[in-house]
Specification:
The protein is α/β, with parallel strands linked by helices. Helices cover about 40% and strands about 15% of the residues. It contains ten helices and six strands. The chain has a six-stranded parallel β-sheet. The N and C termini lie far apart (about 45 Å).
């Protein structure tokens, strides 16, 4: 029998869709997909076949990104199939599409971790970056997941991913308070990347050296 080459890293990130319902001013995905209307999604059957191959290659954890993963109505089926294979699944999401029903489906499917992208502790700051009305919808999505977790007594972890840039760098301490109030278990702070939608606005959005020093060099630490 021919031996199967194993992946010793055991972890991958997978852009499960190129579609997204938001147009964030710093979105990296534009570097990969360009036209927001371009449909490159694999079918569910194709994804299942790929998951089987990944399991055979030694992958034991997958972090699904996009685009926005919840643009796929079959996302719970993807997670459930991977989980049944023995692959731990986590999802990066903007949270705006997570209704009560979708929260129940994704938690019940066995999702280990949901990472919510929030770029400000208030609508005023977050929505300048992510779009009008997005902050309220993110909070509702988190609320829906927390309610389902309590009802199902599930252990799905919820954390926050925050991109540090000029519009929000003075509010990191308030972001910590927000995450605590929402019951999120961790706050990940990332630096702005010169790619995607941020490429042409990088000088406008990126922190100056003085601002990085003022913020305790959080961008470098992240």
């Amino acid at each position: 029998m021919q031996s199967v080459e194993t992946n010793h890293f055991r972890f991958i990130q997978w852009d499960i869709t190129s579609r997204c319902n938001l147009s964030c001013i710093h979105c990296r995905s534009e570097s990969f997909y360009g036209d927001a209307n371009l449909d490159r999604d694999m079918t569910l059957d194709e994804i299942k076949q790929r998951l089987e191959k990944l399991w055979e290659r030694g992958i034991r954890r997958i972090h699904f990104l996009g685009g926005e993963p919840f643009m796929r109505r079959d996302l719970p089926e993807v997670v459930r199939y991977a989980t049944e294979l023995g692959i731990i699944c986590s999802i990066n999401t903007n949270g705006t599409l997570i209704t009560e029903d979708r929260a129940a489906d994704i938690v019940d499917a066995g999702t280990y971790l949901l990472t919510f992208s929030i770029d400000g502790p208030s609508a005023e700051i977050n929505d300048r970056i992510r779009g009008r009305g997005v902050f309220r919808r993110i909070l509702k999505g988190i609320e829906n997941v927390q309610a389902i977790k309590r009802r199902l007594r599930a252990r799905t972890r919820l954390i926050c991913c925050h991109t540090l840039m000029r519009p929000n760098f003075k509010t990191v301490d308030t972001m910590v308070d927000l995450c605590t109030d929402l019951g999120l278990q961790n706050l990940i702070i990332s630096g702005l990347r010169r790619m995607g939608a941020a490429r042409e606005r990088y000088d406008e959005l990126a922190l100056s050296e003085e601002e990085r020093l003022w913020s305790g060099e959080l961008e470098k630490i992240a």
